[in-house]
Design a protein that fits this description.
The chain is mostly beta strands and 98 residues long. The chain has one domain: Nucleic acid-binding proteins (OB fold (Dihydrolipoamide Acetyltransferase, E2P), Beta Barrel), CATH 2.40.50. Helix content is 0%, strand content 57%. The chain is built from no helices and 8 strands. Strands 1-2-3-7-6-5-8-4 form an 8-stranded antiparallel beta barrel. A hairpin with a 4-residue loop joins β5 and β6. The radius of gyration is 12 Å and the shape is globular.
């Protein structure tokens, strides 16, 4: 599943950066080293297999821990993400941001 998101807000909290999309469908926690800025537009891929690409800013290996009617919550070792996809509970997925 491929998405292009526009960033509404970025919060830097030490080692973690929280990204909010303009349409409020995405909330992504990423390591600050990914260097995500307000003026960035992001390509987000959600896949079951690892995705390789030269321009990847960060790739998160996640576990789906909660599913709702129109979104899912996933955890990547404590980094939390809200994604606008109904995934299967306890599935492993990769979130790739470039």
């Amino acid at each position: 599943m491929d998405y292009k998101i526009k960033i509404k807000r970025v919060e830097n909290n030490g080692a973690i950066t929280r990204i909010y999309s303009e349409d409020e469908k995405f909330l992504l926690d990423v390591p600050t080293e990914a260097n995500i800025k307000m003026n960035n537009n992001l390509d987000v891929k959600i896949t079951k297999e690892k995705y390789e690409h030269k321009k990847i800013k960060v790739q998160l290996y996640c576990l789906v821990f909660r599913v709702f009617d129109n979104y899912s919550l996933v955890s990547a070792g404590g980094l939390l993400c809200k994604v606008p996809v109904c995934l299967d509970l306890d599935d492993d997925v990769f979130i790739t941001i470039s």
